[in-house]
Write a structure and sequence with these properties.
7-stranded parallel β-sheet, globular, Rossmann fold
């Protein structure tokens, strides 16, 4: 299938072409027709499968074809768990909607609300928001959601893990009763099903890939190594010419900071990304990594989802995650958009139980690196 077969507006097809895409991913091919038809939708797909375009393109088409007169009002609301994902989803709306005349804005915490309030006052059609800051601005009277026609909950399982269930319910209670609802989640635990039952109305269900299946084109290997020898192993991996853009995961914020300092002492350009960093520091770190000014990004699981960086050559689990689902999300940062990638896990004796949990979830043993 080609994008041109999905009955999208020529302006959207032109924008998609400018982004270099001609063939939709499986989630896009299956979800876009359902959303264009006006159905509620529950989408279950791995991170990195192109689900942002699966809802952004039909939302843009809907808003373009149902033009309204008068001041701009928020007609589409996308709720996401993190600031990084909000920025990336908004970038996608901007890229795909470059010829649409529609405006979008990001509403997130961790930064001054002033520019966000200014953008909202100027009028926007689409808001991409983290629930906490959105609820705060609603209570201050800066946001009205009485014109919302489409609601999206993206990374719904992650939002529930982060404790956003009550803010989500409060936000949803203010929306018009008649609207289209879309929910996307990488996993489908019982609490996600329960939330879907309260929001979605006779939804279409679209699932691509087995839930918790690692990306098909990511080669996975494990090194059994004592904790005190992990840094030396990491430095040896970084000496390889193919390790040109490397994402290293630490279990804790303190551990991430400590590891980045040690890498810099070893003259490796490394940035750090975790939840204790200011939004400005997080943006700079991610920008330096994307632009190649830093070859290594050391991060906690705040970067495990929604981090869209092209050509990540290696994902390295310096610490094995204690939640097996996090492993799948972590390694999904490489091998994206049809490319291949390499995921290496450094496992000491105390982490072998975590590794067994991962292998049980993914239903495949990790190859031992030589």
């Amino acid at each position: 299938m080609l994008f041109s077969e999905l009955k999208l507006d020529p302006k959207l097809l032109a924008a998609v072409g400018q982004e270099g895409y001609t063939t939709p991913t499986p989630i896009q091919a299956r979800a876009i027709p359902e959303v264009l038809a006006g159905r509620d939708l529950m989408g279950c797909a791995q991170t990195g499968t192109g689900k942002t375009a699966a809802f952004a393109l039909p939302i843009l088409q809907h808003l373009m074809t149902r033009a309204v007169t008068g001041p701009r009002r928020i007609r589409a609301l996308v709720l996401v768990p993190t600031r990084e994902l909000a920025a990336q989803v908004n970038d996608s709306f901007s890229a795909y909607g470059r010829h649409s005349g529609l405006r979008s804005a990001v509403v997130v915490g961790g930064v001054s609300q002033g520019p966000q309030v200014t953008a909202l006052r100027a009028g926007v059609d689409i808001v991409v928001a983290a629930p906490g800051r959105l609820l705060d601005l609603m209570q201050q009277g800066h946001v009205r959601l009485d014109a919302v026609e489409i609601l999206v909950l993206d990374e719904a399982d992650r939002m529930l893990d982060m404790g956003f269930i009550q803010p989500i319910r409060r936000i949803v209670s203010t929306l018009p009763k008649v609207r289209q609802n879309l929910m996307f989640s990488a996993t489908m635990p019982n609490d996600i099903r329960a939330l879907a039952d309260t929001i979605l109305k006779t939804p279409a269900f679209v699932a691509v890939d087995r839930v918790a299946a690692p990306a098909a084109k990511v080669e996975q290997k494990v090194y059994y190594v004592e904790r005190q020898k992990k840094l030396g192993l990491l430095l040896r991996v970084l000496e390889r010419p193919d390790a040109f853009r490397v994402l290293v995961f630490s279990r804790t914020k303190h551990g991430a900071d400590k590891l980045a300092r040690k890498l810099r002492v070893a003259r490796v350009d490394a940035e750090v990304l975790h939840g204790n960093k200011s939004q400005g520091a997080r943006t700079r770190a991610l920008d330096n990594f994307k632009r190649g000014r830093a070859r290594v990004l050391v991060a906690t699981d705040v970067a495990a989802r929604g981090l869209d960086v092209d050509d990540v050559s290696h994902v390295i689990n310096f610490d094995i995650p204690n939640e097996p689902e996090s492993y799948v999300h972590r390694i999904g940062r490489t091998g994206r958009a049809g490319a291949t990638g390499l995921a290496l896990s450094f496992c000491d004796h105390d982490e072998r139980g975590f590794l067994r949990d991962i292998e049980r979830l993914t239903r495949m043993p990790l190859a031992v690196a030589g």
